[in-house]
Structures are given as C-alpha cells and as structure tokens.
Amino acid sequence: MESAILVGNHALDELRELATSAGARVIDEVIQRRDRPDPATYIGKGKVEEIREQVVLEGVDVVIFDDELSPSQAKNLEEALDTKVVDRTGLILDIFARRARTKEGKLQVELAQLTYRLSRLAGYSAHLSRLGGGIGTRGPGETKLEMDRRQIRHRISTLKRETEQIRKHRQLHRERRRRDQLPLVSLVGYTNAGKSTLFRALSKENTLISRRLFSTLDTLIRRIQLGRDFPVLISDTVGFIRKLPHQLVSAFRATLEEVVEADLILHVIDVSDPDRDEKQRVVLDVLKDIGAGGHRLLTVYNKADLLALPLGDGGRRPGEGFSTDGLIVSAVSGDGLDRLVEEIVHHVTPLRV
Q1: Which domains does the chain have, with CATH numbers?
Q2: What is the reported pLDDT for 140?
Q3: pTM above the 0.90 mark?
Q4: Quick one: how far is CA 166 from the chain centroid?
Q5: 133: pLDDT confidence band, cut at 50, 70 and 90?
Q6: CA angle centred on 287, ends 282 and 291, rounded to 5°
Q7: What is the CA radius of gyration of the chain?
Q8: Is 342 helix (H, G, I), strand (E, B) or coil?
Q9: Is 122 helix (H, G, I), strand (E, B) or coil?
Q10: Residue 227 DSSP one-character state
Q11: I want to staple 305 with a disulfide (CB 3.0 to 4.6 A). Which of 191, 277, 325, 330 is the partner?
Q12: Is 216 helix (H, G, I), strand (E, B) or coil?
C-alpha cells in the first residue's frame, strides 16, 4: 500500500475516498486556498517546500492533487518533490482501470488512459522507470502503460475502431428494442448513490452490491415486469463524479448512449449525503454535456433508511431541499418502491400507444 499526501484548495473528503479506493494509505492532507493556481507548480513555492520536507521525512510514495494538473505542472512538481505526483484525473482513471472487468470496459478505460497519457508524455517514461508501478501507472488488468508516442497513437486508433464497433452493436440492439416497443428506463446518479442497489431491487436480483466507488463500469440492462403485463427495460451504468475526466466521457460514449437514448431517466440521489445538492448539479451538468439534458427525468431520493425519513404520501416527499416531483425510497428496505413503480408506469405508458 502506497503512502500518500493529498493536496487541494478545499475539503478533501472525496479525494481521500478516491485515494483509498486506489489502494493508498493517506498520511496527511494539505489545503491551500489561492485565487488562482500557480502556473508552474499549482501550489505556492512555500507549500512545495513544506510538502517536500514531509516527503523526505516520512518516505511518501505519492502526492495526489485534487485537480487536473497541466503537463508542465506535473513535471515541475515531480522534480521539486522527488516523488510520484498524480492528479485527480489520473487517480480516477486508475480506479476505473482497477474496476474494469469486461472486454468492453477495459477497452474504454484504456482509451481514456492513453488519451490522457499522450498529452503528458514528456518525462513520463523516465518517471515510470524511476518509480515503478502503483497508483497512476496501471492499465486495465494491472498492465503497465509504458509506450512511446508512436505506439500510443497507434493503440488509440485501434481502440477507437473497436469502441466504434461496440457503439454500432449497441445501436442495433436499441433499434431492435424500439421495434419491440419496449421503453428504456436508465438509472443515473453520482457514484455511490445506491444506483446499482436500486437497479437490483427493481429487477428483483439478489446479488450483493459493493459500496465501492465506481462499482459499476459496464451498462447492465434487464427486462422487468412492472405490474401486470407491463414489460420495460431498465439500465444501470457508470456513476458520475465531480470533475469527471473528459477523456472518460469521450471513451465511454458507447456506454453513455444508453442514457441518451432512454425514454425515462431516474436520477438517483443519496438523500443522506450532506452534499447532495452539489452532487445533483454535477449529474445534471453531465447529462447536459452528453446530450440528455432535456430528457424526461424523475428524481429518486434513495437511502431513506439511513435517515429514518417518513415517506409521506406513498413515497412522495415534496418540501424544502427536495424536488417537488421527486420520490423518496429505500432500495435496501424496499420502502417507497411500489410508488416508484407506479410513477415509472405513468411516465412510460404513453410510449406504448
């Protein structure tokens, strides 16, 4: 397990969770609030020296920044700190590489990683050879990403062709579903909002759900019965996060198109999360970015069991801090799910006429 120092300009709770998910042991957090990042080192010279002393004193393996560093900032920081430097984008990509299990997921993660690597190749090979593996160096399946520029470009071209084939394959499946007049309901939400738990509750699957960040990378689609003779398709896909790397959005285009093509989007929110409003905005921004901003959307406040919230009128809870047309449920206990099913049927029934 690598020892890590976290660096950012505000609370680092989420970065700590990300770092832990990547296998780091966080030994300290450094916060420096600046009007704008230093163009050379992101943080000021004094902070660089302070962190450098701690790196030497405690033998720190990696310093992780809660933002995307420019290639020159990353290079300057590694030289100044004399240890591995990973930014938020590299960290998230690393976690995705650890989570990828299917061929499709691995292809998309590798494409995102190599696109990111290509822009900061200068000095990167030397960095890998000096510091070995670990956080920021893993590809899908723990493979090293040690290639030169020509190799990376060639591999990116190959991956783009393969992901385009995935996209076309998914498009054929969507066309067949439309011919069968099966409405598609897609679950979206911030990572760890309980999306996959709700998916399994609705599809009546008993699989144990991991509480890890990004436990789902591949789109799962199930045909389910809502009430008597009312089949729909329900899909679960990758969770969103603040500062979601644009490389991932691009590489996972084939997967995210399932959301874009959905007839109804269920926006799952962790009602127990004190930052739920900010995370809700993040998800809505991502939906807008991928072309799903104007879709029919139903807000689902999940994890009511963690707060012992009353469900009010059959699962509906308008009021301060909640969407007036939202529903509050517990995917774990099942409370509010009957009302949610009624709402789904209400929204998609016109599509079957």
Answers
A1: 2-135+143-149 (3.40.50.11060), 181-352 (3.40.50.300)
A2: 65
A3: no
A4: 20
A5: low
A6: 150
A7: 22
A8: helix
A9: coil
A10: S
A11: 330
A12: coil
Give the β-pairing of 184-189 and 220-225.
unpaired
Q: Give the up-direction half-sphere exposure of residue 45: CA atoms within 13 A in the CB hemisphere.
A: 0
DSSP lists the bridge partners of residue 24 as 2
Half-sphere exposure of 241 (CA within 13 A, CB side): 25
Angle at 311 between CA 305 and CA 315, to 5 degrees: 110
SS3 content of the chain, % helix, strand, coil (to 5): 45, 20, 35
Residue 67 binned pLDDT confidence (cut-offs 50, 70, 90)? very high
The total number of residues shown for the chain amounts to: 353
Dist. CA 47–CA 103, nearest whole Å: 42
Q: Distance (Å, rounded) from C-alpha 42 to C-alpha 30?
A: 13
Q: What is the DSSP string of 30-80?
A: EE---SS-BTTTBS-HHHHHHHHHHHHHHT--EEEESSPPPHHHHHHHHHH
The amino acid at residue 212 is: R
Report residue 54 as tokens: 């701690």
Tokens 């190799």 sit on residue: 151
* Inter-CA distances, 109 with 41, 75, 146, 298, 303, Å: 28, 24, 16, 29, 29
**What local confidence, expressed as pLDDT, does residue 142 receive?**
47
Instruction: Report which of 195, 237, 241 is spatially closest to residue 218, judged by C-alpha positions.
Output: 237
Over residues 206-228, the pLDDT tens digits come to 655 555 666 666 678 888 988 77
In SS3 terms, 279-331 reads as HHHHHHHHHHHCCCCCCCEEEEEECHHHCCCCCCECCECCECCECCCCEECCC
Report the chain's terminal Cα–Cα distance, integer Å: 57
Q: Are 262 and 235 in contact, with CB atoms under 8 Å apart? A: yes
- Closest by Cα among 229, 190, 183, 223 to 205: 223
Residue with tokens 């690597």, as numbered in its chain? 117
Assigned token pair, 196? 């996959």
Give per-residue pLDDT as tens, 98-129.
888 888 888 989 999 999 988 877 555 555 55
Token pair 């591999």: residue = 155
8 Å CB contact between 332 and 305: yes
Contact yes or no for 84/61 (Cβ under 8 A):
yes
